[in-house]
Write a structure and sequence with these properties.
Number of strands: 0
Number of helices: 7
Radius of gyration: 16 Å
Order of helices and strands: HHHHHHH
Length: about 150
C-alpha cells in the first residue's frame, strides 16, 4: 500500500507498527517519523491532527512521555478521522501512565474499550499493572518487602 500510495500516512504508521511487532525497533521509529512528516505534508488548513498523533507515537517509543502526551492532546484538538480519535485518547492516557501519572490509569482502562486493534492494548495493560504494583508497594509503606 505504501508503494502504491506513498502519501498514505496511516499505511506508513501501520508498516511501522508491523516492524515494531517484529522486533525491528529502529526501522519502526523511522516509519513513525515518516508517517508524521507525511501527514504534516498532506495537512490542509492546519488539519494536522493525524500528524500530531504519529509524532506522539514516535515520542512515546523514544520514552519521551511528557512530550508524547502533549502531541496526543494536540491531535485531539484537530480534525482526525473518527477511528483515530479513540486511539489518540488511549495513547494520551498510556503516555501519562507510562510517564508515572498512575492517576490516569482508570482513564486508560476505560479508553481501551474504544481503541482499535492497532492500538497496543497488551502494552497498555502492562503499564496499568505496573501502576497497580507501584500503588500497592506505596500503600504498604516503608519497611515492606521489596
Amino acid at each position: 500500500v505504501v508503494k502504491r500510495t506513498p502519501s498514505d500516512a496511516r499505511a506508513i504508521y501501520l508498516r511501522g507498527r508491523a516492524k515494531e511487532l517484529a522486533g525491528r525497533g529502529e526501522p519502526a521509529l523511522e516509519d513513525y517519523g515518516l508517517a508524521s512528516r507525511t501527514a504534516f505534508a498532506n495537512a490542509r488548513n492546519l488539519e494536522s491532527g493525524e500528524a500530531h498523533l504519529y509524532r506522539g507515537v514516535l515520542l512515546y517509543r523514544r520514552k519521551d512521555f511528557e512530550r508524547a502526551e502533549a502531541e496526543f492532546a494536540s491531535a485531539l484538538n484537530f480534525a482526525i478521522p473518527a477511528p483515530l480519535q479513540a486511539d489518540a485518547v488511549a495513547w494520551r492516557h498510556l503516555a501519562a501512565v507510562a510517564g508515572g501519572a498512575c492517576g490516569s490509569r482508570p482513564f486508560l482502562e476505560r479508553s481501551l474499550v474504544a481503541a482499535s486493534a492497532d492500538f497496543p492494548k497488551d502494552e497498555a495493560r502492562a503499564a496499568m499493572a505496573s501502576c497497580s504494583a507501584l500503588t500497592s508497594a506505596e500503600a504498604a509503606g516503608p519497611g515492606s518487602a521489596q
